[in-house]
Amino acid sequence: MAPRVNTGPSAVVAMLGPTNTGKTHRAIERMLEYPSGMIGLPLRLLAREVYDRVTTKVGENRVALVTGEEKRVPVQPSYWICTVESMPVSIEVDFVGVDEIQLAAHARRGHVFTDRLLHARGIRETWFMGSQVMRPIIETLLPAAEIRTHPRLSTLSGRGASPLSGLPARSAIVAFSASQVYDLSERVRQRKGGAAVVLGALSPRTRNAQVALYQSGEVDFIVSTDAIGMGLNLDIDHVAFAGLQKYDGQETRMLDAAELAQIAGRAGRYMNHGSFGTLAPLPSLPLDINRAIETHNFRPVTQLVWRNTDLDTSSLKNLIASLREKPRQGYFRLVTRADDFNALCFLAEQPEIASRVTGPDYVALLWEVCQIPDFGDQPVEYHAKTLTELFLQLCGPDRSVDLDWLARSIDRIDNTEGSIDTLMMRIEHIRTWTYISHHTGWVKRAKKWQARTQEIEERLSDALHERLMARFVERPGKARSRSRARQQMRGPAENPLGRGPFDNPFEKLLEMDIAIKPLPESPPTVSQKWTEQVLDARYGEFHCDHTGVITYQNEPIARMIRGTELLRPEIRLLGDSAMGAGSRLQIQRRLLAWTRDLVDDILGMLRRGDLRDLSPAGKGLLYQLEQGLGTVLAEAAREQLRHLTSRDRQRLHRAGVSIGRRLVFVRALLKPTAVGGRIALCVAYYDLRSSIPEIKNGSVSVKASPSVPTNAYIAMGYPVLGSRAMRADILERFDERLDRLSQQGFFALPGECASLVGCSLQELATVVEALGYRRGKNHTWHGTEATRARLLTALSGKWVGPPVPDSESELLIPAV
Fold this sequence. Notes:
Radius of gyration: 33 Å
Helix content: 40-55%
Largest sheet: 8 strands, mixed
Shape: elongated
Number of helices: 30
């Protein structure tokens, strides 16, 4: 049995309600309030979307993405974004969330969601998000769970049947077969100029490209199967059902009201109202279904799909028997349509397989092989051929995949020629090989094969997108000429003789759905290729100079600008204004995630695991250091410093934190590279592009600019004293030296002080005065408690010392 996340005490929350209530968004925000978390999502596409959102908040170095075919796992991830089937449930995290929990009643996938509902727990909190239909059964299974509901953010209303010509812009047309989607898309192209196409069989890359086509406004319509009903957040105003029946793998059946509502709920996002209806000649939805969708009132789920997870792998027969074990409770029903179980039963009947399964290890291996998804949904005997060959190779002397066989199998798919259906079939096949390549214990040099299969999938996806564009999107020039021709043939709207509408014999012909030969393919533009390169680039391929300009391949592509706080800059793209809105948004997200990694790179030593269990005072000091990019005034952290334990001080010292008399600072963050990053963040937040501080190559001090705020200099690690901005460690050293000299009363400044501070003798005097010392006679200096408190006045702009005497003469000690 697979290990669990955590079965101990954990606050369980069921966030239930209709679509567009912000359930997933709330769960993500809640997860990020914890140091660690994991969220399971129903689709690979949605997992990638959430991954992009989370990385823009915390950076890619802290977030793992795990799906069947894609694994991006940094060295020490804090957050795991996964498909529900791929959740690494053996990892303990503070927060666990599972989205679309009503899929626990799904015929094929339900047993996985049921297992997560029963067993997946965060150490501190667990959320299940989904439809209100799950409320009664969750209350039965998890009586201690807190049920939360939120109203839909916008209204959803039915509007009956509409002809194709009457559909408003920003509409989605939903059909339930690929052939019907193609037919409708062709009709939309002829009459409305074009449509984006979404099918469940599309690769995420193609689907993203089609969605971007719609989101950017290049087309006003999207034609989709019910794949649109989950995981796609689009700007849709109206959903039109072109059918109400679907083939579910066993039979053609009517969709129930809850299924229709899941799809109809795509209309109206956030505060925008939406509508739904049917596409004529289909009649309007029945009144009771219409009302149920509007009010989100459906029959509750009474049974969940279940499968035993306590498997007996002692023999093949026992494994099959344990998978067939029936549930003991009446609110569960045994899964009957599991692809992995069907594959296991088929392979178990093959003599060559049965003869190799000689012990528990081989039984477990066979079951793992059978869990490879059949992305093409083929008859079991076709998929089983690949599984059989794979299992036999893994049973061989090398216990690994034959690389020649792997290469031949992959090379056969590497072909971008063919029809839309052919390309989709190849994408389904390559996804299987991608899944296999991610089993690093099976495949030697796995990363090489992962890169190879991903490269092929990307090429096939780009070719498929181009085919869809050519077939279902009217090119602007051709659309205009078609419109002019139609207008000319229609002639004036009214008969000039005044005897009713003019009956144009060509009008009916123009309205006919005539098959049009697909437009010739065109390769992806330079902009498209460049966009993909940027999106796939590694962290180290981007660079940011001290002005906040981000470069890629030595070309400036974006600038960091002021965000909500110093550590969270926003991004403004530079150049290529002709780039599509979808591409710009993707690049902006990618670079935003990169800036979060940049901040994490700068402050990494303050986010070490051994600093998490500091005392409250230690955590408070750590927070101030983060917010100050590694430097904080000792006076500003006085309360935290007073309550630090000896253990806190030891750990902070090991992390490179220096606690001085005037400043607390991180030694490593005064190195030139780190200071450059700190300057870039300050330039963005304080908008210093016209007065960028000239701090270079570890300068000990620089001339302070009056146009740069004092707080900005502190955040750069160079607090201002007099006319100089001085590096934090130099300031502490110089102040300590003056303090030792002042113990003798009046003192003369040693000649090497100017060299230590890095300034002229004249400027040195302003620095010493800013530290609270006063000139005496014969070029000597002295200080008192009152005057030395002026240091904080110089650093923070506020007087924090004892009352200032009315006359400076009161501070002077007569010269000896």
